[in-house]
Amino acid sequence: MPELPEVETIKRELEQAILGKKIVGVVINNAKVIREPKKEKFIAELKNTEIKKIIRRGKLLIFELSSGKSLTVHLKMTGQLIYPGNGKTSRVSFKFSNGKLLDFNDTRLFGELRILDNWQNLKFVKELGPEPFDLSEEKFSEMLKNRKTKIKILLMDQKIISGIGNLYANEALFRARIHPEQPASSLSAQEKEKLFEEIKKVLSEAIHYKGSSVDQYVQLSGEPGDYVKYHQVYDRENEPCYKCKGKVKRITLGGRGTYFCPSCQKL
DNA sequence: AATGGGACCTGCGCGC
DNA sequence: TGCGCGCAGGTCCCAT
Q: Where are the alpha helices (DSSP H) in chain A?
């Protein structure tokens, strides 16, 4: 799915598109993505409410409503939000008073929509680690201490730091020249500092280019994001490393494709 | 506590 | 052309 930069891109575009607008109807084409409450109540809760505020927390989007409740949207792997939509392939479409649709598309149906009295009480949210941009280098280094876990697994753990997924974990580690299997606690102070820098840099750059369209992710308009052309290692198995011309290698870590350059990123 | 596997789903690209 | 397999940006749950 969309990781932090993709969700942030969508959030910023949503603010321009639907902030202050009123939902007048909801069409549910596949109720599987509605986690709570039940379909009918979900629709009733949204009808005639305005979007007061849009928040991103980690990879989660939160729409605060005029009713005081919130709609949360997790895009998981293949979720898309499209505005204006056409309702043709959507799992759920939200209709606004201007007649336009916000489509929630989701091929694999992993996505999760909820209406909550207080989104901060959601277990997933309570357990989320800090946002990368709200974190100090000291705290980041602290978190790696005494952790024997492979550094890449740790970077993708939302309870440690929120918003980094498989793609940006790979990219940040390459840029910091750190092997993805290196135990977190064994990173030197300089390596930790460099890694933290590169995490923030790669996320910022990706936001600047409006995300990475590797599969299903698109911006709110349906346009792809441009960051793929700046990827150094992700999905580049056997292709030459841009730094040393060696071959990019793919291994599996935590069940996910892991790409790195064995000569630039040594254990 | 940490790791490894599978589950949830659909669809794409690849090799045969 | 068709089939089977492996793979996919996330997260949860279970076994060891």
A: 4-18, 39-46, 123-127, 137-144, 151-155, 166-176, 189-208
At A222, which amino acid appears?
A: G
Phi, psi (deg, nearest 5) at residue A243:
-90, -50
Strand C interface, A 60-119, C-beta < 7 A? 60, 74, 76-77, 108, 110
User: Does the CB of A238 fall within 7 Å of any strand B atom?
Assistant: no
> In what helix (H) or strand (E) does residue A36 lie, and over which residues does it extend?
strand A34-36
Q: Which residues pair with A28 in a beta bridge?
A: A92
Q: How far apart are CA A132 and CA A206, in angstroms?
A: 14
Backbone angles phi, psi at A187, to 5 degrees: -70, 140
- Reported pTM: 0.97
CA of A97 to C1' of C6 (A): 45
Q: Convert the pLDDT of each residue in A81-113 to its tens digit.
A: 999 999 999 999 999 999 999 999 999 999 999
